Amino acid sequence: MFLKKLLRRIIEYGHMIKFSHSVFALPFALSSAILANDVVPLSWEKLLWILVAMVSARSAAMGFNRLIDRHYDAANPRTQMRHLPAGKIKT
Prior knowledge:
It contains five helices and no strands. It is mostly helical. It has one domain. Helix 2 crosses helix 3 (about 45-70). The model has no long low-confidence stretch (mean pLDDT about 90).
């Protein structure tokens, strides 16, 4: 029961921050790392940290943006069904 609620909550947060968009942006981070390979040699460890940093920074920024704009989203008919204004996720 607890695990099911936790999984559902993780999925809701993933939808709120548009985690799928982070996956879409991965090729851009990887191509940047490959282009920078001449200046700073790329290792598997660096590649892992680049991916972690990119996904973490984007997720944190998107979550913060949703939190800050929740009052504007609630007033806008187009965005009032987003997770925070609709009450799917509590602040």
